[in-house]
Amino acid sequence: MSAFVRLIVVIYARPMIETQIIRLQKHLDCVFVPGASAPFTELTSELERYFRGDLTEFSVPLLTPGTEFQRLVWSRLRAIPSGATRSYGGIAAEIGRSTAVRAVARANGDNRIAILVPCHRVIGPDGKLTGYGGGPWRKQRLLEVDQGA
C-alpha cells in the first residue's frame, strides 16, 4: 500500500467502514480481497491529482449499488461542480422531490463512495456544515480541497 493510499485511509477512516464493507459485499455478492488492480491504480492516480488540486472531476468508472432513489441522489451529487455546494433541500428540488429533504439526507449519508460521489458538498440551508460520516473536520478539509486550498 502506497504512502498516499495509507494517508487517504487515515483521512477518511469512518466509524462505520466495516459495516459499509459488509453491506457492499452483500449488495455485490462478493468478497473483497487485498491486492492491486488496474481500476485501483487509476483511482489512486486520480485521488492523488485531486488532493494536489490538479483534478476536479473523476473519470474512473463507478458502480453505485443502491435503490433507484439513492442512485438518483448520488447522480445529482456527482453533478455538483467542484468548489460549489448544495443544500439537502436544493438537491430534493433538483430531483423533483422537494418534500423529500430527509430522504435526500439519508441517501447522502448512505453514499459509500465519498469524494468521488461528493456528499461533502451538501451543506445546511444556512451555509453551515451539517452531518458527515467522516466528521466535520474532514468535510471542511474536502471543501477546502475543492476550493483549491
Order of helices and strands: HHHHEHHEH
List the strand order in the largest sheet.
Answer: 1-2
Query: pLDDT below 50 for ≥5 consecutive residues: which ranges?
Result: 3-11
**Assigned CATH architecture:** Orthogonal Bundle
**Strand residue percentage:** under 5%
Proportion of helical residues: 40-55%
Helical region count?
Answer: 7
Q: Profile the largest sheet.
A: 2 strands, parallel
The CATH topology name reads: Arc Repressor Mutant, subunit A
Number of DSSP strands? 2
Could you report the average pLDDT, rounded to the nearest whole number? 85
Commentary on this structure:
By secondary structure, this protein is an all-alpha fold. It has one domain (1-149): Arc Repressor Mutant, subunit A (Orthogonal Bundle). Helices cover 50% and strands 3% of the residues. Strands 1-2 form a two-stranded parallel sheet. Helix 5 (88-94) crosses helix 6 (101-109).
